[in-house]
């Protein structure tokens, strides 16, 4: 018998784990691309190593004994961790894409127009982007980082890099804002209010900063028009349907061109545009992406 601290052969443990998980020597042999006899021999060798029975027969299948269950509890987790480590290393060596999640409106109106510059500046990053609302779910392993407006406290276990403050303001086309020029913020209620269900707190935040009446605002919102997403809200504002509430960064292009006007300016919401990522993503190009974003935001 082996000494108590010695480990059995890896192939024997692989055969045992597959058989225990699948409940069949035949199924384990198919998964491992070996013969039925090879799996049986490995299991017998493992039972000899521990001097105990690991399986009992149950009809045409196999069930774990008490000792078998104890061994499988650790071996299964170990092989899962080993597989994840090997796949992760292979992906890193092969240069897996850096996948960036970003809210749809920010992606369409700010990031996409700059993607060509980003890819020229960081060609080794192999960046993939997709629209996704909110922050990064730490449980996801298919997303390298998330670019989003979030408020503290920051999520635990994540690398969070603050890039810019979020400011929001009431905006509309020049045709709508011209009669409001020079008037106090309460003149807002002379216009139709456009709202979005994805950011219900935006109008109250801005109105509170301007000292507007809560009940008057609530009535104006009920009488106005609501849209599901910020993207549709901004399209409605650009079409001249009313006064929208929007983050300055998302509409920077429209403000610069004069297509939208913010007659009373913008207020800080307390949220910040952040790049969130696991530590390994920061090492794999996240820090370089954050630096590029800082430089680009400085010119926005």
UniProtKB/TrEMBL annotation:
Belongs to the LysR transcriptional regulatory family. The keyword Nucleus does not apply. Pfam families: HTH_1, LysR_substrate. Gene3D superfamilies: Periplasmic binding protein-like II, Winged helix-like DNA-binding domain superfamily/Winged helix DNA-binding domain. This is LysR family transcriptional regulator. PROSITE patterns: HTH_LYSR (PS50931). Keywords: DNA-binding, Transcription, Transcription regulation. Residues 8-65 form the HTH lysR-type domain. InterPro entries: LysR-type_TF_proteobact-type (IPR058163), LysR_HTH_N (IPR000847), LysR_subst-bd (IPR005119), WH-like_DNA-bd_sf (IPR036388), WH_DNA-bd_sf (IPR036390). SUPFAM superfamilies: Periplasmic binding protein-like II, Winged helix' DNA-binding domain.
């Amino acid at each position: 018998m082996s000494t108590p601290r010695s480990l059995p052969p890896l192939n024997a443990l692989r055969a045992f784990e597959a058989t225990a998980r699948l409940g069949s020597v035949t199924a384990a042999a198919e998964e491992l691309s070996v013969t039925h006899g090879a799996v049986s021999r490995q299991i017998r060798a493992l039972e000899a190593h521990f001097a105990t029975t690991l399986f009992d027969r149950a009809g045409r299948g196999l069930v774990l004994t008490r000792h078998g269950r104890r061994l499988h509890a650790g071996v299964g987790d170990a092989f899962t961790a080993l597989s994840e480590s090997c796949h992760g290393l292979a992906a890193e060596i092969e240069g897996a894409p850096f996948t960036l999640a970003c809210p749809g409106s920010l992606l369409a109106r700010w990031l996409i127009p700059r993607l060509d510059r980003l890819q020229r500046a960081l060609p080794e990053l192999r960046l993939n982007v997709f629209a996704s609302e909110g922050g990064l779910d730490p449980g996801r392993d298919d997303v390298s980082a998330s670019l989003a407006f979030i408020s503290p406290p920051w999520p635990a276990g994540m690398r969070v890099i603050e890039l810019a403050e979020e400011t929001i303001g009431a905006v509309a086309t020049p045709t709508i804002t011209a009669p409001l020029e020079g008037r106090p913020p309460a003149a807002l209620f002379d216009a139709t209010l456009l709202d979005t269900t994805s950011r219900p707190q935006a109008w109250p935040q801005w109105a509170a900063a301007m000292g507007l009446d809560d009940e008057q605002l609530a009535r104006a919102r009920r009488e106005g028009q609501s849209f599901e997403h910020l993207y549709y809200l901004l399209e409605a504002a650009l079409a001249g349907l009313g006064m929208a509430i929007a983050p300055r960064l998302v509409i920077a292009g429209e403000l610069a061109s004069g297509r939208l006007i913010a007659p009373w300016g913008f207020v800080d919401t307390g949220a910040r545009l952040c790049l969130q990522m696991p530590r390994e993503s920061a090492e794999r190009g996240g820090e370089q992406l954050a630096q590029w974003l800082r430089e680009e935001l400085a010119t926005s």
